[in-house]
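Worked example 4.2. Below are the chains of a multi-component assembly; read each line carefully before continuing.
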Amino acid sequence: MEYSEKVMDHFMHPRNVGEIEDASGVGTVGNAKCGDIMKVYLKIEDGIIQDAKFKTFGCGAAVATSSMATELIKGRTIEEALKLTNKAVMEALDGLPKVKVHCSVLAEEALRAALWDYAKTNNIKIEGLEPPKEDDDLDHHDLFDEE
Amino acid sequence: MDKKIYFDNAATTKVRPEVYQEILPYLDEMYANPSSVYTIARDSKKAIDKAREQVANAINATTREIYFTSGGTESDNWAIKGVADAYKNKGKHIITSSIEHHAVLHTCEYLEKQGFKVTYLPVDKYGLINLEDLKSAITDETILVSIMFANNEIGTIEPIKEIGKITREKGIIFHTDAVQAIGHVPIDVKDMNIDLLSMSGHKIYGPKGTGALYVRKGVRITQFIHGGAQEFNRRGGTENVCGIVGLGKAIELATSEMEEENKRLLELRQTIIDGILNTVPYTHLNGHPEQRLSNNVNITFDFIEGESILLMLDFKGIEASSGSACTSGSLDPSHVLLALGLPHEKAHGSVRITLGRYNTKEEAEFLLKELPPIIERLRNMSPLWEDFLKSNK
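Applying the procedure described above to all two chains together yields the following structure tokens:
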């Protein structure tokens, strides 16, 4: 198993690590059982993501996808952020080993969970946003065969 | 430190120069097939005989009881399948432990599909099996007990002599996977009542693809590889002469140097274990604190994940391994750590450091200097650490 240079760069020098004290939305996904937990903080003003931070428990790919995903949505509108897919995160990292694809899925879900939290707190409806899956035991690993 | 520090000696080791020198002629002029009749073939044959003697001497067996194989995995496969097949009319029950190497576990699972019944003994928090559990698992149907000598992940040494006493009294065959123990723990198959024992060359500075299986005289085992009269008609195929020569030399050196080398390794091991446990908070030693291989360190770092630690260590030139799922390609954490009762997140957060003859005190000190900031950095990134700090405020 080998990581791309971009993955290693985002792992060794992760962007946006940390917390946002007065976050507009916070989302946590994953569980310790499968070895990855991602927590994403968003600061949203006027429909624009002004800042994004994360905390991640997980492997190199989990940290790198968190770093890249937060990087990709900073300065974007909510609508643009909603369009971010795990594939886009992977592509931006020059790919992931097959067994690590689930990390990129988790990163996408963490963003959506934070957006959902923002929508719920502010009592607004974001078109196209589904509530995060309640069942934390959902095994993202079954997705790893997906190309 | 510019050079790499290799702390993964339980995975494999570097062939030592004495072994390399011993092998060289058999890659060159001494190429004859040992089964041929001419003079240089006799030299190849003699080289194999010598290696067989070296292996036999290392465990107090006779040469007739030593069979060369392609490594520990083949030895385990052959021992278990061969005994199961030879004794299936006597019974179809096998007892093993939940922390065996996959070479044993997956072989047992295969036999279950063939109609055998397998009991997987649990272990305590240190990785030790309970002898009372073993006794009560034995039935009239039991033909084989396979318990590893020492565990490859946590280094725990099982009570082999006590197990051998029980199985011999009950007339049950006892196999032990001694791949990690050879060269680290004194082994006497007669005194310990061991019937079959698996060995490997590349864990003790011998070449990869070499191993041996000890089968006590009188124990039946069916042929594993058909197609030749080699290895006393038990394993066909032209012998891996240079590999066998290397294995013989490696095992001879490892056992003759064991006592002295163990002293050195024990000191290094304790320096590392104490150094980590005393300087990094929320860390735990996995495996038994004393009944443990002299070269094994296995530590869980709470709140963080093993692969991340390994990647950062690698960046500093330190090579180690982890029980985390993420390092293996499989997605579950180590079955050994889970069998100790560790929750998943702690199993994911383990790092294994295994020492060898080339490791020095300076390397251990370098590790102890580099590790704490890595752990701190990863914890500062971890939501579990954040939750922990907040709940303790």
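Take a moment to check your reading of the output against the notes. The mean pLDDT of chain B is 95. The radius of gyration of chain B is 22 Å.
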